[in-house]
Amino acid sequence: MEDLVSLRDAIAQRTTTARAAVDGYLTRIAAANPTINAYHEVFVDEARAAADAIDTKIASGSPTGALAGVPIAIKDNIATRLGRTTCSSKILENYRSPYNATAIERLTAAGAILIGKTNLDEFAMGSSCENCAWGAVRNPWDTTRVPGGSSGGSAAAVAGDLCAAALGSDTGGSIRQPASLCGIVGFKPTYGRISRYGLVAFGSSLDQIGPLTQSVRDAALLYECLAGEDPLDSTSAVHAVEPVSATLDDSPRTFRVGIPSQYRKGNSPAVDAAVERATDLLKGMGATIVDVDLPMTDVGISTYYVLAPAEASSNLARFDGIRYGHRSTAPGAKDLFDLYAHSRAEGFGVEVQRRIMLGTYVLSVGYYDAYYRRALQVRRVIKQEFDAAFAKCDVILGPTSPTAAFPIGGVTDPLAMYMCDVYTVNTNIAGICGISLPAGLDHASGAPLPVGIQLQAQAFAEPTLFKIARAFERASGPLPARPPALTPAA
Amino acid sequence: MGDAELSIDDVRHVAKLARLAIPEARLAPLRSELVAILGHIAQLQAVNTDGLEPMAHPLPMSNRLRDDIPGTPISLTDALMNAPRRELDFIAVPKVLGGESA
Questions:
Q1: CATH number at residue A471
Q2: Contacts across the A-B interface (CB distance below 8 Å)
Q3: Residue A432 belongs to a domain
Q4: Is residue A405 a part of any domain in this protein?
Q5: Which residues in chain A come in under a pLDDT of 50?
Q6: Which of A88, A97, A127, A150 is catalytic?
Q7: Interface pTM (ipTM) of the complex?
Q8: Which of A3, A152, A271, A431 lies in disulfide reach of A137, CB 3.0 to 4.6 Å?
Q9: Could you tell me if residue A218 is inside a domain?
Q10: Which secondary structure element, helix H or strand E, spans residue A434, and what is its range?
């Protein structure tokens, strides 16, 4: 299984073609998707046509972009003119976006081919891809297990070799946690680094688009293609985007890795072992290991489950059955209020309704100060803790998820599901960047399951983060096993 | 938060604010789920936040204004293509005043 950069280079050097790459993925999708359910929609004809156009360009020597000919899967909460944009929700079952997200415009401008739209937990609310109106997504490593979420379709597509790379979105860990559970790289950029224009809003002060990839260099390349100010997103950061690919393989000189004691609680043994091994590898590269203190680690979930539902309850108010989306035909939907209430109750799934209720409650009269205002103050405490930690270190090392992939149907209590994101939500709350890297295997349940580690860095410290991530990847080597679904039949 | 602090009526009221027609049978289980989540969230009250400004946004940013130059809006066809019910070039909705259906 090659990464995006090697495929791109092979297409550019004409040792293969974009068309052959697309056809290869389409064949594997046809074989695997009925089981894995990574894709909700596959752009068979459009991807082939786009590939032929790129191949013609390359053959004629015309200039092409940095992603020329590589097929990329798109999480279905990112607006594409091509196909539908459903957010894996019945309320948007037939929704067609009249415009492309900025991230899509930038991908296609660089020559990438959109191969399909991937399933997610409805409106990106979930950590298992079981809350999906189009059925649960399955983990290619063990199809009885979840791929993580909410970008589980994108993660399963990359891990299952069903695309060269994928885009996801991360509001509280939705790129990094599924990447960890599927044994791939998942990167959440600094808040504002990649335009949110065309990303269906969940928690607007937390959401970021980012890549899920086979390698660190793929994530770095996609980041470079996507990042930068966008006039269509007034919260996009104005800071110049420092190139990261060119210097990716330069060994980081002296660097400091912070390890918080709070990241060692309640993890499975394989997760703790992967973090220990990563610590040793980084030490071997000359890193200084320092203790840092993040006492608010487990308060993050409480903060997140006030802020994210509050923002979601406001953002999802737009789905009312009037201008687009599902409109109720129930006999009770007589006046405008009932039309809203019935359309929304019929269109939204259980978890989305639960979060809208929670968000509405914490913003309601009498509770605003106790919950929402309080959570915003704790957000500042969390930010200050990170600032203090990053005064002592360049990156913070820890687990991405406390466990490897769990069985489908294995976590039914909503609160227990929320706890999956204990190590990832604070990255979003503080607006910093983080990356999950494949770091080991968990054999406790028999078949090997991947385990990830997470590196977090200060806002706009992507160049440092990528360099250290790449150094770790080089020292760690590929995982000693691959998803069984990938074993070629012949 | 104790059970007594969130009644079924409260859940019904929040559902109304949220514009969600939640079936009566779902109110009690939903209440238990919310009580459990709010019970966990109560740990926020133990954090010392004295004198701290609420932080609405992760990065220091101020409003950015663009120049007032007309752009190209999306076409009428695009704007209406997802409308659940149309009449001519309008989106049809139930009568807003009087409660009669459209």
A1: 3.90.1300.10
A2: 173
A3: yes
A4: no
A5: 487-490
A6: A150
A7: 0.93
A8: A152
A9: yes
A10: strand A433-442
